[in-house]
Amino acid sequence: MFASKRLGKELAKIQSSLPPGIALVSAPDLSEWHMDIKVLDPNPIYLNLTFRLRFRFTNNYPIEAPEVVFVTTTDPPRPIPMHPHIYSNGIICLDLLGSAGWSPVQNVESICMSIQSMLTGNTKNERPVGDEDVVRSRQGPKNMRFSYDDLTV
């Protein structure tokens, strides 16, 4: 019940205003939302690209972080961004999405802004080490154990 109340408030705020480069695509219910994000700075890696995020919420939100991944679409085209902390299956290695880095004060907008910032500052057009193994394992982001020690990206 708390999750639906909180998500209802967040959705109302998102529908009225969002930071530049972030857009609500769909929120058909309170369990899954889709957001588009763009890098607004002239980062050549992401120039003229828009990316789609899928948020999945449990009944424990906001106590528990949502599952957030990049997804591909063809119409309109939305690729998975190249980044040393983003696997080719869309899984994002970002501490605030894990239990150790998550705080209930975070919300959909702040997560989008953090990911947008992560992309803006990236200078490496590459995937994480072990990308093929992660994709092959078919693990979901909640089942992965990340090491958050790469501060160079």
Describe this structure in words.
The protein has 153 residues and is an alpha+beta fold. 23% of the residues lie in helices and 18% in strands. The protein has helices spanning 2-16, 108-120, 131-137, and strands spanning 22-26, 32-38, 50-56, 67-71, 73-74, 77-78. The strands form two sheets. Strands 1-2-3-4 form a four-stranded antiparallel beta sheet, with helices on one face. Strands 5-6 form a two-stranded antiparallel ribbon. Strand 5 (73-74) and strand 6 (77-78) form a beta hairpin. The longest helix has 15 residues, at 2-16. The mean pLDDT is 91.
Give a quick summary of the entry:
This protein has helices at residues 2-16, 108-120, 131-137, and strands at 22-26, 32-38, 50-56, 67-71, 73-74, 77-78. With 153 residues, it is an alpha+beta fold. It is globular, with a radius of gyration of 15 Å.
